[in-house]
Amino acid sequence: MATYIIGDLQGCFDPLQQLLEKINYQPKQDELWFVGDIVNRGPQSLECLRFVKSLGERGQMVLGNHDFHLLAASSGLEKYRSKSDTLEDIFNAPDHDELIDWLRQQPLMVRHPTQPIAMVHAGIPPQWTVDQAAIHANEVQQIMRSDDWREFITQHLFGSKTKVWHDALTGWERLRYIVNAFARMRYCNAQGELDFDLKGAPDKHTHAEHQAWFLHTNRRNKDHEIFFGHWSTLGAMDAYQVHATDTGCLWGGQLTAFCLETRVRHTLNCEQMSKPKKSKVAKKSL
Ligand SMILES: [Mn+2]
Questions:
Q1: Ligand 1 mean position to 37 CA, how many Å?
Q2: What span, in angstroms and rounded, lies between the C-alpha atoms of 141 and 20?
Q3: How many angstroms does the Cα of residue 101 sit away from the middle of ligand 1?
Q4: Which of 59, 107, 150, 254 could tie 267 with a disulfide, CB 3.0–4.6 Å?
């Protein structure tokens, strides 16, 4: 039995199938864990979504910013649609409602049952232990599993307003910070104040207050290995007790499957499915 942690798919279904063939994936024995952003920008988002759902107990995923974007766009509100989206197949699918209903119930963090290992989409802010992170992830999961989920997604989630964490933060603001941290963060300060303007690789910001989240020396979640995606310009990185798995399949880089048992990074070279954007994303896009 093997457990593979797979980097951001973003609708790249054929490369996923090729990678699974390459690693001799055994569907009845192996587990696949996805770091999120399983949809959007690539050509086969519907196939990716159906595949991950079909894994049942042999699959795990965490929600990424593009997955949240799909959940918002599925409401039909025009402001949540973006020109660079490739989500039409999902909107038109006969199993659309079932897929969305399943997706919204996925967690923000997955922990290994016996080892100090956690998986998130973007990161865990430095001020939280993994136990605290689990509590906060669960707060969002509760709302996403309730009847209020669409109100949260379409009226309260998007935007960069809530950048600072306080334990006393309440209501939608609290939930918005939690999603922003797990699904969107790259840089923050030591107290977890998020900075959404910085996007490049961290070596350019060595002395700044806002560091890559995993570089803060007092980070309280260093006792776990944390797997994450979201940051394709980092590339493959195994350092600082974290493992970066978004190796830019969508952009003509690689798709990564990190085997937890053997510690081997398996990769597939990918054809470019989407051109890097020069222009801005939609206003309401995460
Ligand atoms: Mn992402």
A1: 6
A2: 29
A3: 20
A4: 254
How many angstroms is it from 247 CA to the middle of ligand 1?
12
Q: What's the whole-number mean pLDDT along residues 149-155?
A: 93
Identify the pLDDT of residue 76: 82
pLDDT at 275 over 70: no
Interval 166-185: pLDDT, tens? 999 999 999 999 999 999 99
Give DSSP secondary structure letters for 167-198.
TT--HHHHHHHHHHHHHH-SEE-TT--EESS-
Helix axes 45-54, 96-103, angle to 10 degrees: 60
Per domain, the residue ranges of the chain are 3-269
* Fold classified for 3-269: Purple Acid Phosphatase; chain A, domain 2 (3.60.21)
Strand 242-244 with 237-239, pairing: antiparallel
The backbone torsions φ and ψ at residue 238, rounded to the nearest 5 degrees and listed phi first, read -125, 95
Tokens of 102: 């399943």
pLDDT at 282 over 60: no
Q: Which residue has the tokens 């199993």?
A: 95
Indicate the pairing of strand 254-259 with strand 242-244.
Answer: unpaired
Report the DSSP beta bridge partners of residue 118: 111, 226
Using the mean position of ligand 1's atoms as its centre, give its distance from the Cα of residue 151 in Å.
22
Task: Tell how far the Cα of 19 is from the centroid of ligand 1, in angstroms.
Answer: 21
In this predicted model, which residue has the larger pLDDT, 232 or 198?
232
CA of 239 to the centre of ligand 1 (A): 20
Distances (CA, A) of 154 to 102, 158, 223, 242, 282: 18, 8, 36, 32, 14
